[in-house]
Recover the amino acids of this structure.
């Protein structure tokens, strides 16, 4: 995918038996349907969506998770992203916020 970038993790995670030191992501290929699906995924995880998505750090992390799912051809899921370190999660969410809101 042409617009794919990577997030280098400070703490690797295992996905499907493979150790990942970086996570590919692509915001450019996201669709409106992908964005709408995020609120459903957040609800399934028991994570509330605030009224102002521009300031919702959880929503930003799920935006990143969807971008990673797209870039990895669904090999990486939101459940995998929820296992990254808190520091990496902050960076991932900031990437989404910067792309969509700044």
């Amino acid at each position: 995918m042409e617009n794919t970038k990577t997030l280098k993790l400070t703490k690797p995670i295992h996905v499907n038996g493979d150790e990942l030191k970086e996570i590919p992501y692509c915001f450019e290929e996201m669709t409106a349907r992908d964005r709408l699906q995020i609120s459903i995924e957040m609800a399934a995880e028991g994570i509330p969506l605030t009224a102002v998505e521009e300031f919702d750090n959880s929503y930003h992390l799920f935006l990143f998770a969807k971008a990673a799912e797209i870039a990895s051809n669904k090999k990486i899921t939101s459940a995998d992203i929820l296992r990254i370190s808190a520091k990496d999660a902050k960076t991932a969410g900031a990437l989404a916020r910067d792309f969509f809101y700044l």
Q: What stands out?
A: The chain has a mean pLDDT of 95.
